[in-house]
């Protein structure tokens, strides 16, 4: 190794040493501890953990509540990214190519982006409390008040087991859409207008402009959004915990894996069992990311 290469390697190692050390201490180390705790029956800081091997994982196989939570996370994994990305792409395309000629943004597009982005500046707990009021089953509920004024029965958005999950899904999509509208708008703004004009000269409609020009050139951004939303769907916690009765009810109709991990750890003090759930969630998340990257891989379109 010549002197220049050695100096460069020493600089890179010195530059990365502290970030890598912090990552090992604050990210990798907790994961390793979770794996080790999952093999014990530890019940708290003052209790002596006993090694139980894979007993916690075997218990998971017969835990109906946990598998209900897994099913809910699976539904969110499909529906939350799909709903969010479709709505965000629709509005972003309108903002950037919805002008009178189809190649320019609508008037006031910057203002609309701010309005769409507004939910992102709210804390998740605040969003949950706000929608608790929106979904109230009486005259003070924003959605039920018009129904009751028309003489209809109020809907138990958070109290009906058949409706509660879909109400939570709607809130999650509402909260996420704004960020992706802004993200996709930024991506669409970088697409040369010449491509749209050439397509229009060839007789392309707005639909063809979107599917033949916009979406292929925006695919890398959509792929990242899909993976990020999928991981967020697997990690859903605060909205469910704050909004719903019994923190995942009624009758476990809205519970998710993160809620069950928290419940077992900090309400039942079954830290070993909760860690086993966390390990399962970790592998679900990694598996999703790998599969999503492989399935969404395609030839990059240059412009």
UniProtKB/TrEMBL annotation:
Record flagged with keyword Transferase: no
GO BP term (any one): transmembrane transport
Membrane topology: Multi-pass membrane protein
Domain of life: Bacteria
UniProt KW keywords: Cell membrane, Membrane, Transmembrane, Transmembrane helix, Transport
Cellular component terms (Gene Ontology): plasma membrane
Subcellular location as annotated: Cell membrane
Ranges where the ABC transmembrane type-1 domain occurs: 70-292
Residue ranges of the TM segments: 12-32, 75-99, 111-135, 163-183, 217-243, 271-293
Database matches in CDD domains: TM_PBP2 (cd06261)
InterPro entries membership: ABC_transporter_permease (IPR051393), MetI-like (IPR000515), MetI-like_sf (IPR035906)
One Pfam match: BPD_transp_1
Recorded family membership: Belongs to the binding-protein-dependent transport system permease family.
PANTHER family in the cross-refs: ABC TRANSPORTER PERMEASE PROTEIN (PTHR30193), DIACETYLCHITOBIOSE UPTAKE SYSTEM PERMEASE PROTEIN NGCF (PTHR30193:SF41)
Name under which the protein is recorded: Sugar ABC transporter permease
Organism: Sphaerisporangium album
């Amino acid at each position: 190794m010549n002197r220049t290469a050695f100096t460069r390697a020493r600089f890179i190692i010195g530059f990365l040493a502290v970030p890598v050390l912090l990552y090992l201490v604050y990210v990798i180390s907790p994961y390793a501890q979770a794996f080790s705790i999952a093999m014990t029956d530890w019940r708290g800081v003052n209790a002596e953990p006993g090694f139980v091997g894979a007993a916690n994982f075997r218990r998971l196989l017969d835990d109906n509540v946990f598998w209900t939570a897994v099913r809910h996370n699976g539904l969110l994994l499909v529906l939350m990214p799909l709903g969010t990305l479709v709505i965000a792409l629709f509005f972003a395309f309108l903002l950037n190519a919805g002008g009178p000629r189809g190649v320019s943004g609508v008037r006031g597009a910057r203002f609309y982006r701010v309005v769409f982005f507004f939910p992102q500046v709210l804390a998740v707990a605040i969003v949950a409390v706000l929608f608790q009021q929106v979904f109230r089953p009486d005259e003070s509920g924003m959605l039920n008040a018009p129904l009751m004024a028309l003489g209809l029965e109020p809907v138990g958005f958070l109290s009906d087991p058949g409706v509660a999950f879909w109400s939570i899904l709607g809130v999650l999509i509402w909260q996420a859409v704004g960020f992706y509208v802004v993200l996709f708008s930024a991506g669409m703004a970088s697409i040369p207008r010449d491509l749209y004009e050439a397509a229009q000269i060839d007789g392309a409609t707005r639909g063809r402009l979107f599917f033949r020009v916009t979406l292929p050139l925006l695919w890398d951004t959509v792929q990242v959004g899909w993976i990020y939303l999928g991981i967020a769907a697997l990690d859903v916690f605060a909205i469910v915990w704050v909004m719903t009765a019994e923190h995942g009810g009624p009758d476990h109709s809205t519970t998710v894996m993160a809620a069950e991990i928290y419940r077992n750890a900090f309400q039942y003090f079954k830290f070993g069992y909760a860690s086993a759930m966390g390990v399962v969630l970790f592998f679900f998340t990694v598996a999703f990311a790998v599969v999503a990257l492989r399935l969404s891989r395609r030839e990059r379109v240059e412009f």
